[in-house]
C-alpha cells in the first residue's frame, strides 16, 4: 500500500515498511510543513490591475496557503480576487498592507466569497477556513 496524504495539512502518511532509507527526509519534510502551518509567514504581492491570485496547498510541499500568516502587499490599480484552497479547518491571519484597495474578494475554491471594500491601508483579518 502506498503513502497517502492527510486531508488537513497534506502531510505524507507513510505505510509501515515503505520508504526504506528515506524516512528521515520524509519526516523532515513533514516537520517543515507543520512548522509552516503553525508559524509560517509569507508576503504575497497582489500589485497591479484587476487579477486573480490563487493560494494553494499541495501534498508534501511548502505552499503559500498553508502559512499561519499571509501578508498581501503592493499598489493595486484594479479589483483583486484571492482564491484560497479550503481543504482544512484552519485559522489564518491575513495582513493587508496595500497602498490602494478598490475591491478585494477572498474566495474559497468551490465555496463562499468574502467581499472587502475600501479597507484602510493596513488591515488585519483573522479568519477560520472551513473545509468544503
**Can you tell me the overall shape?**
elongated
The tally of domains stands at 1
State Rg. Answer: 17 Å
Uncertain runs are: none
Number of helical segments with 4 or more residues: 1
Helix share, percent: 10-25%
Largest sheet: 4 strands, mixed
Structural class determined from secondary elements? mainly beta
For the largest sheet, list the strands in their spatial order.
Answer: 3-5-7-10
- Give a count of the beta strands, DSSP E runs of length 2 or more: 10
What's the SSE pattern?
EEHEEEEEEEE
Q: Quote the distance from N terminus to C terminus.
A: 27 Å
Question: Beta-sheet strand percentage?
Answer: 35-45%
Oligomeric status = single chain
Mean pLDDT: 78
Structure report:
- With 132 residues, the protein is mainly beta.
- It has one domain (1-132).
- Helix content is 13%, strand content 40%.
- The protein is built from one helix and ten strands, in the order ββαββββββββ.
- The protein has one helix at residues 23-39; strands at residues 4-5, 12-13, 41-45, 51-55, 69-74, 80-84, 90-98, 103-108, 113-117, 122-129.
- The strands form three sheets. A four-stranded mixed beta sheet has the order 3-5-7-10, with no helix packed on it.
- A hairpin with a 6-residue loop joins β1 and β2.
- The radius of gyration is 17 Å and the shape is elongated.
